[in-house]
Amino acid sequence: MSDNQPKAPRAATASRNTKETQIEISLNLDGEGHAAASTGLPFFDHMLDQIGRHGGFDLVIAAKGDLHVDSHHTVEDVSIALGEVFRQAFGDKAGIRRFASGRFPLDEALVDVSLDLSGRPFVEWHVDMPESLPLGDPPFDPQLAEHAISSFATAAGITLHVELIRGRNVHHIIEAVFKGVARCLRDAVRIEGRGIPSTKGVL
Q: Virtual CA dihedral for 38, 44, 49, 52, nearest 10 degrees?
């Protein structure tokens, strides 16, 4: 096997069951971009689909939550569980690129994303959303985009910076963020050597 191929499947599953949500997630980092998300929130499903498809991951998410209350619990708990399953799938991170960054457009929207699979969760979010009605039915509050990304990065142990360069359409801005995070994850988990990319010897 070449140095550029992982030695073992980098895959994981996670379950999260509370009085507010029931969640099952499976992930294969070395998949083919097959994604399926069912959370009861169509817009959020569309965003989660971006993570799998643009990350090149096989990702299946099934969630039921108390949407009669609001969408907050479902978005938060799915994002936490997604971060946990990524952290498991990373394994010891031997050979990964670790860092990735880029600018990602969607029509008039442009976002800058930089991340480090550091094991040290830290999020800088500089995305000022224009005023917007909730998206989809049942509705997804656009203000939850920050909470979703932050909860995911924290649970996954990622240092993440997201900045909106320009944009007017809230749907485009949020989708550009999710696509940008997905593409950076795709680059950061790529195997390009053998050792753990840290002077500490551990990430």
A: -100
* Residue 129 contacts residue 170 (beta carbons within 8 Å): yes
Q: How far is it, in rounded angstroms, from Cα 175 to Cα 107?
A: 11
DSSP letter, residue 191: B
Domain 11-188 carries which CATH code? 3.30.230.40
pLDDT tens digits for range 121-179: 999 999 999 999 999 999 999 999 999 999 999 999 999 999 999 999 999 999 999 99
Cα–Cα distance between 152 and 82 in angstroms, integer? Answer: 6
Burial class (CB in 10 A: 0-12, 13-18, 19+), 124: exposed
Element (H, E) at 69: none
HSE at residue 132, side-chain half, CA atoms within 13 A, is: 21
Is residue 145 within 8 A of residue 76, CB to CB? The reply is no
